[in-house]
């Protein structure tokens, strides 16, 4: 006799199909992510500002989950990282979102994968941030300058910040890096020197006043180097 | 083996797998927004380093705020629409659970309208529904949230373009390399087959994004239930760094 209370429709070729098991495919964040992803303070890895969010794009009553609580000021040199996200026509991308991931000033990641206990963690620094671009395609992170971390064969890498680009029209995350123009270590960085010389500048932030500046060009002339990950 | 005594013990590094055959291309002409936003150069393969194999962990509340697993209880009243439960596991490609990882959720309301100010199509907003939530997987990689089934909605890709009902999901996983943003679709939605965004995923892998109705997830007299497992890139079996144990 059929158990009416528990019987299911016949299995389909869907998410639960054993023969399809594998990586869940990427899909775009679309244009309406602002009330779901970039939290207030997401782009401020140092202080307690609202940087990173776009409260102009939805009513305040719908700020249901975007509140961070930083615990104190991290060690290291505070920096402002700014730039614009531009498309293949040179136009601003006002509905992109950037994420950064970086080591602390001592060169330690706040991650279980970084097991170098000899290098101090900073209780006030996580190293993950998120910023929605503004109407002008601009972004602004406030963070600290990262220390060096090991690369292949233990050779130290130049200071860098890992960067993800997401947005409407991006079916999958684009991964890149931000280096700093004043670091002589750039010349020996194992990742940077694996990039064709004529494209390396797309990964290197330049001083502009008190800011570090790097534009992210999604396509065409001056296209940012993105990594296969 | 290279020694760096003042830098601490060498980390146990492992790279993560490349994208598999179900990954969409960056440029998919039918999805018009990809035309000027997709890189024209192929992505550069690099040796993954500690930067790529590490990621934030256990800091979600401090970063973003408390979890919000019930999207139907964020305002004074109950939102309109079909109440649903979505549950599943977050796994890696080797079927290992991914515990304590955050899933961020956002979606349109039952009418297919987002609270976003740039969504201006003629469908009603619901004052009792924001459509944003966040859950963290448990020790076995399990998650569960309650929401309403989102509606389909028109979009500007072409005349008479309609997005299938979907829930946006964002995962970080254990590492920078495992970042994933995806969308969950619903079974038997005829719009999936003609949607340029879903279609960017080649068949049969597109079906990985379609959740399954499950009577066992339903709660009698309260909510319908769907299962949706999320599979992140797996770690390579062997460490890539010859110098490390």
What does this protein look like?
The complex is a heterodimer of chains A (229) and B (245). Chain A is globular, with a radius of gyration of 20 Å. Chain A is an all-beta fold and 229 residues long. The termini of chain A are far apart. Chain A has no helices and 10 strands. In chain A, a hairpin with a 2-residue loop joins strand 7 and strand 8. In chain B, strands 2, 5, 10, 11 and 12 form a 5-stranded mixed β-sheet that branches. In chain B, a hairpin with an 8-residue loop joins strand 8 and strand 9. In chain B, 47% of the residues are buried. The N terminus and C terminus of chain B are likely disordered. Classes of the chains: A mainly beta (229), B mainly beta (245). Chains A and B meet through strand 5, strand 6 and strand 10 of A and strand 1, helix 1, helix 2, strand 3 and strand 4 of B. Strand 10 of chain A pairs parallel with strand 1 of chain B, so a sheet runs across the interface.
Please name the defining characteristics of this protein.
heterodimer, A: 229 residues, mainly beta, 9-stranded mixed beta sheet, 0% helix, B: 245 residues, 5-stranded mixed beta sheet, 4-stranded antiparallel beta sheet, 12 strands, globular, disordered N terminus, disordered C terminus
Summarize this structure briefly:
The complex is a heterodimer of chains A (229) and B (245). Chain A has 229 residues and is mostly beta strands.
CA-based shape of chain B: globular
The interface involving the most residues is between: A-B, 106 and 118 residues
Oligomer: heterodimer
If you compute it from the alpha carbons, what radius of gyration of chain B comes out, rounded to the nearest whole angstrom? 20 Å
Element string of chain B (H = helix, E = strand): EHHEEEEEEEEHEEE
Number of strands of chain B: 12
Largest sheet of chain B: 5 strands, mixed
How large a portion of the residues of chain B is in β-strands, by DSSP E? 15-25%
Low-confidence parts of chain B, pLDDT < 50 over ≥5 residues?
1-11, 238-245
Shape descriptor of chain A: globular
Q: Tell me the structural class of chain A.
A: mainly beta
Summarize model confidence as the mean pLDDT of chain B: 91
Separation of the first and last Cα atoms of chain B? 10 Å
Helix content of chain B: under 10%
